[in-house]
Amino acid sequence: MSRNRAVSDVLGFVIVFSLVAATVGIVSVTGIGILQDARDAEQVNNAERAFDVLADNMADIHQEGAPSRSTEIKLDNARLEVRSPVEINVTGVDPSGTNPNVSYSAIPIMYEGRSDTAIVYEGGAVFRDSPQGGVVSEQPPFRFSDGEVIIPIIQTQQMGNATSVSGGTVRVRAERAVREPLPEFVQREADFDALIVNVTSPRYRLWRRYLEDDADATCTVTRPETVQCRIDDPKRLAVTRTLINFEFET
Asked: Which of 227, 229, 192 is nearest to 214 (CA)?
């Protein structure tokens, strides 16, 4: 009888120990994954806040006339890099048929970490982009109000040779090179029937959403990664260009 009881006690201990070990293993694996996801999400949130500061500093240059600004971005396990230029084109639909247009490229600055979410500064805007979709975190500095259309084209160009940096804290130093109105688009009373804005960018869907919502524009996708938006009957119009050179400092 005592032998059977001893065997039962051993079996019970083995079963309980196995259940505890399995539970600890499952919780450990799941918990670590949850902690990693939470850490990655917080790093992206911090990067988004840093890019909002970057956009404000860039605005000091193209709106307030500041000669230069620097923005510190903490990377940890992430990287900061430049991407292929995006293209911004503005065309005026003129009753005379002359239809003046200007076209400029801008180099995006992108933050990428462990997650599949990227933070991007381009054309004065900040985008939170991911395969599942994205949001306009900081709107471009365009203005559409009561028939007034103001479009500052922010043309970012890279200085130096570092196209990608990772780890630690990186400083994005930016300085103004050119700030000028575009004479063909500076009109107190606009005589265009419409204004056509074309944006070629991997984030063309976010540009489309912004222009449709903010400018009440009619937008279509004309070719891969290009959205064309028509703003009818602008009453007053100004299009300017600011060239901003930037570089990464570690």
From this structure: 229
Residues in the chain: 250
Residue 216 to residues 62, 101, 161, Cα–Cα distance (Å): 25, 21, 40
Contact 179, 203 (CB under 8 A): no
The pTM (predicted TM-score) of the whole model is: 0.83
Closest by CA position to 106, among listed 84, 128, 78: 84
**Rg from Cα positions in the chain:** 26
Nearest-5° angle of CA 135, CA 139, CA 143? Answer: 145
Name the pLDDT band for 54 (thresholds 50, 70, 90).
Answer: very high
| φ, ψ of residue 145 in degrees (nearest 5) | -155, 125
E-assigned strands of the chain? 68-74, 79-82, 86-93, 101-106, 109-112, 118-122, 125-130, 133-138, 143-145, 148-158, 164-166, 169-181, 194-200, 218-223, 226-232, 236-249
Spatial distance between the Cα atoms of 70 and 245, rounded to a whole number of angstroms:
12
**Tens digit of each residue's pLDDT (9 = 90 or more) over 97-136:** 888 999 999 999 999 988 889 999 999 999 999 888 899 9
